[in-house]
């Protein structure tokens, strides 16, 4: 490479310097880590094998549950129908509903989703070998699409219940929460039916409230 | 945090941040910088001044953190694509986006893209991060001699590619002049 090309390449890599706040924030993180765990290297020798053993046991348990292949095999929470008659305003389960990364916008493209229902979370199990996906089983109160479906359904969803959330932008849900879920029942890349439907992010999966449920009913009936 | 480590953070912060910025999008580098310091602080006993410089060691930690980020990100993106979210899934895609944005000469851009990944990474560590070939070798965990020969080969490939393109351009110009 001649000098001109080398210089051009170097200039293509130029980036603005970070703000002092960014540098300070990063330095603060290591300060906190140092204060929180000053003897970390000693502790890790004991902790790592213990954590590894716990993780292995957990994975074996989850795999066993998954291999049984039926939603009823998933741990089922006590049947909890919300006793309150009013619900707080519906909100998306994650903060990405306005993200430019979303390929469809809610509610404009709700009507295009392959399925939609109102249901209560019975159980949630992390899907093995994925960092963020959970098999979530619902007691369905009403199917908006398709019209006739089973009373219980297991849906793959981004993120687990609160306390087991893995995404930084996840609002989350709890076992027993009443949710409105819509998404895909067909893999858009292959056109094949999915074993478990996928609850979409980007606002298409959200907490339940009566006005939003009414809207969904109308939208899906069109 | 001890004085030595605090000095490294202060001295190398902007360069490590620049390295992360060039290989990610959407302000991810701001968060990853903190991850790099935490990881480096946790592993500082592994730094051996006889083997290399603190700067190269920190770039090595940053590279490790970056790979971890993309590994995690790929898992997320595989399913995210299905559920309606799309993002770059590796640092090559982020670097490509940067090269596009920089409106680099097409021949240079294509030349870089055609390099084997290991040569390209090495070339960019030297060109963009101003690391010496020996420091870049330390970052990549390869012998210095291997890095030097790999770098030489990368520059040679780029030369061939660019001179090939130049010949095509010259030929086109000549043909147009003949008309």
TrEMBL record, chain A:
List all Low complexity biased stretches. Answer: 75-88
The annotated region (Disordered) lies at 72-98
Can you tell which superkingdom this protein's organism belongs to? Bacteria
Alphabetic keyword roster: Membrane, Transmembrane, Transmembrane helix
- The regions listed as transmembrane in this protein's record are 46-65
Name of the protein:
Uncharacterized protein
From TrEMBL, chain B:
| Matches recorded under SUPFAM superfamilies | Sigma2 domain of RNA polymerase sigma factors, Sigma3 and sigma4 domains of RNA polymerase sigma factors
| Family of this protein | Belongs to the sigma-70 factor family. ECF subfamily.
Residues in RNA polymerase sigma factor 70 region 4 type domain copies: 107-158
Pfam families assigned to the protein according to its UniProt record, in alphabetical order: Sigma70_r2, Sigma70_r4_2
Q: Which domain of life is it from?
A: Bacteria
Q: What organism does this protein naturally occur in?
A: Kribbella antibiotica
Which NCBIfam families does this one have?
sigma70-ECF
A GO BP term here is: DNA-templated transcription initiation
What are the residue boundaries of the RNA polymerase sigma-70 region domain, all occurrences included?
Answer: 9-74
GO MF annotation list: DNA binding; sigma factor activity
Give a yes or no for keyword Transcription regulation in this entry. Answer: yes
PANTHER family from the UniProt entry: RNA POLYMERASE ECF-TYPE SIGMA FACTO (PTHR43133), RNA POLYMERASE SIGMA FACTOR RFAY-RELATED (PTHR43133:SF25)
Q: Which residues lie within the region annotated Disordered?
A: 155-179
Report what the protein is called: Sigma-70 family RNA polymerase sigma factor
Keyword line: Sigma factor, Transcription, Transcription regulation
InterPro entries given for it?
Answer: RNA_pol_sigma-70-like, RNA_pol_sigma-70_dom, RNA_pol_sigma70_r2, RNA_pol_sigma70_r4_t2, RNA_pol_sigma_r2, RNA_pol_sigma_r3/r4-like, WH-like_DNA-bd_sf
């Amino acid at each position: 490479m001649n000098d001109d090309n080398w210089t051009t390449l170097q200039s293509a890599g130029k980036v603005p310097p970070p703000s002092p706040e960014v540098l300070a924030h990063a330095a603060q993180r290591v300060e906190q880590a140092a204060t929180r765990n000053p003897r970390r290297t000693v502790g890790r020798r004991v902790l790592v094998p213990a954590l590894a053993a716990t993780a292995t046991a957990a994975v074996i348990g989850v795999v066993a549950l998954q291999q049984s292949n039926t939603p009823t095999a998933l741990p089922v929470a006590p049947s909890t129908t919300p006793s309150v008659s009013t619900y707080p305003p519906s909100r998306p389960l994650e903060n990405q509903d306005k993200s430019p990364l979303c390929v469809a916008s809610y509610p404009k493209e709700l009507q295009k989703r392959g399925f939609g229902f109102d249901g209560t979370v019975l159980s949630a199990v992390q899907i093995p070998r994925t960092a963020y996906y959970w098999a979530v089983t619902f007691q369905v109160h009403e199917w908006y699409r398709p019209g006739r479906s089973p009373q219980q359904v297991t849906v793959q969803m981004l993120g687990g219940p609160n306390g087991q959330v893995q995404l930084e932008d996840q609002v989350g849900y709890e076992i027993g929460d009443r949710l409105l879920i819509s998404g895909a029942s067909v893999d858009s890349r292959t056109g094949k039916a999915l074993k478990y439907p996928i609850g979409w992010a980007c606002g298409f999966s959200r907490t339940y409230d009566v006005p939003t449920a009414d809207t969904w009913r109308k939208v899906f009936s069109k | 945090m001890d004085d030595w480590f605090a000095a490294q953070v202060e001295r190398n912060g902007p360069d490590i941040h620049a390295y992360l910025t060039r290989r990610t999008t959407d302000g991810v580098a701001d968060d990853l910088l903190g991850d790099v310091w935490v990881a480096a602080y946790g592993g500082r006993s592994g730094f051996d001044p006889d083997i290399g410089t603190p700067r190269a060691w920190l770039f090595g930690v940053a590279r490790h953190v970056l790979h971890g980020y993309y590994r995690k990100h790929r898992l997320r993106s595989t399913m995210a694509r299905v559920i309606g979210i799309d993002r770059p899934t590796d640092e090559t895609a982020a670097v490509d986006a940067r090269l596009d944005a920089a409106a680099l000469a097409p021949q240079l851009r294509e030349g870089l893209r055609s390099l084997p990944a290991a040569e390209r990474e090495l070339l960019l560590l030297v060109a963009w991060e101003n690391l010496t070939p020996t420091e870049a070798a330390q970052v990549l965990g390869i012998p210095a001699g291997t890095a030097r020969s790999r770098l030489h080969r990368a520059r040679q490939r780029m030369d061939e590619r660019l001179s090939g393109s130049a010949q095509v351009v010259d030929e086109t110009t000549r043909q147009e002049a003949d008309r």
